[in-house]
């Protein structure tokens, strides 16, 4: 009897918040195609903090964008919970992202004319539904924003603005939070605060977080690190330390990596040797 091949990030008894099978993303076509993701299989465990790391051009942000429905896939299938999103129409996909997914980015994307509370509730206001008051209070208090709710972004520090962005991602109680380099524009102290709040969101609020980062210290806040290289998941580590992550990342140093974007026109080939996009 053959032994099943484990899928990276295999979910435990808590269930699967998102998954992908054969996820492939190519930019361009024919001999100039650039392969950003190469037949990736991955499970994102519910109620856990997963970090995605890899060298520049490894496909880590592309993986997050495809899992979140922010980018289309060239091949393969993606699910959020039990819903396959790869076949959804634009309107259905927009509704799913609004109702079931929270987002944090390196840029805070706050509306300068709205105060902190209005920025936090904006996605639900646009959807025409009010927040769960008890949950919103819990999020605000967990993130330490109670005395900043009437302040506009210009009156907040960078760390406070990212906390508002974190609260906005949490406010609708989404199934997943995707965070793309959420500490990239912060100093070390503010970055540690935001990472602590994401950790609290998982431990105390029961959220699921997927974070793309290049920082071993940030990845050390996660439950699981997935390592990408050349558009594939090549390793994973449970309960990482910053030192262990840094040591693993050093193995990538100096190695050739594929670029996850159309600006580098190196032809890339799949496992069968066929250039991506060829018939």
Automatic annotation (TrEMBL):
Molecular-function GO term, any one: transmembrane transporter activity
Recorded GO CC terms: membrane protein complex; plasma membrane
Keyword Nucleotide-binding appears in the UniProt entry: yes
Pfam families: ABC_tran
Keywords from the named record: ATP-binding, Nucleotide-binding, Transport
Chain ranges of the ABC transporter domain: 18-255
Lineage top rank: taxon: Bacteria
Keyword Lipid biosynthesis: no
InterPro entries reported for this sequence: AAA+_ATPase, ABC_transporter-like_ATP-bd, ABC_transpr_LolD-like, MacB-like_ATP-bd, P-loop_NTPase
Name of this chain's protein: ABC transporter ATP-binding protein
Biological source species: Streptomyces spiralis
Lineage: Bacteria, Bacillati, Actinomycetota, Actinomycetes, Kitasatosporales
